[in-house]
Prior knowledge:
Bound molecules: pyridoxal-5'-phosphate
Strand order of the largest sheet: 2-8-7-6-5-3-4
Low-confidence stretches: none
Strand content: 5-15%
Largest sheet: 7 strands, mixed
Number of domains: 2
CATH superfamily of the largest domain: Type I PLP-dependent aspartate aminotransferase-like (Major domain)
Structural class: alpha/beta
Number of helices: 15
Distance between the termini: 28 Å
Helix content: 40-55%
Radius of gyration: 22 Å
CATH topology of the largest domain: Aspartate Aminotransferase, domain 2
Mean pLDDT: 95
Amino acid sequence: MDKRKVYLDYSATTPVKEEVLQAMLPYFTESYGNPSSLYSIGQDSKQALETAREQVAALIGASPREVFFTSSGTEADNWAVIGAAESMAKKGGHVITTAVEHHALLHTAEYLEKRGFEVTYLGVGQDGLIRLEELESAIKAETTVISVMFANNEVGTIQPVEEIAEIAKKRGILFHTDAVQALGNVPIDVKKLGLDMMSVSAHKIYGPKGVGALYVRKGLALPSFMHGGGQEGNRRAGTENLTGIVGFGKAAEIAKAGLQGHIARVSELRDYFVKEVSARIPDIRINGSMERRLPGNANITFEYIEGEALLLLLDLDGIAVSTGSACSSASLTPSHVLSAMGVPVEMIHGSLRFTVGDFTTKEDLDYTVGSLVRSVEKLRSISSVSKEKGWQ
Ligand SMILES: *Cc1c(COP(=O)(O)O)cnc(C)c1O
């Protein structure tokens, strides 16, 4: 049997689309001017930068002047939450977030705790969603910032951001959301949702790595995080990652034009995969709400086996999947997201995240299901619980 290469880890990162690469190339060697320079080649770069800003703004329903490019989604998260908490420190020092955030946010919140801020980490139900009543009762007079992710990177669950924004607004609290996973997978309109700040990243939407953006609502005086030159309207110093930003713009333009088709196609593939796995492998379970979920995500527990071992067997067949977030997969600490959802530790260890995307085919999924059936059988035949389940 010929070995395929199957990539099912689109939530970790995505390949750069050909049109995105082509849009970027001239800005390496032809139009390489510094966007801050006044002569023509610099102004060409400036023009390209502003076109990209319009493209990203259009994808999220913002005005271009509310979009600030950063080095990553991680930088956008740090800037939003630290900047907002520090600028509001006179009013109070309490921040609310959730236990299921990406490490870019969780570790930023922990940093704030070390700096003397108080942080409340909201729990989630088995479905992976926060409870709005819990959010309301966590709010105190000193609460200045709420940060709740739009969509989760491990289980794909989509939080009720519009409702959270409304609660925050009523209480005069700033609301930030990490929408890195949601961008390009869910229609987003920052105005309709009433958001104050939102983080996004290019490499999760078929753009290049190392470029992100923070949406900051007009009129919100978020202090700069990076100090230096006057780039990005004096809010984010440092010569712009011009090629990366141009690529982000192109990727955003493509995502906007094809959003409904992408959602339909990717969710159909994901549903097909879940159906096949459920029909052919016993003792599995799907983690997280299936209703409020990203189109491409399937997080599955295979009982009685180690997810790491399964991941390695799939890799031998050329299939790339993840045991959770890319950041935690190098360690054996159980996923903080599944823990917060109340999944027992031994089940967490048997969980894998499959994420499909624009280049996934039905054949890729059939091949993966075949490999999964063989690999799960093999691992269960040597596991200690297999005897009592009657597999040996
Ligand atoms: C990938 C990811 C990030 C980090 O974005 P980078 O651009 O890789 O720094 C932050 N939050 C979520 C939810 C992510 O999936």
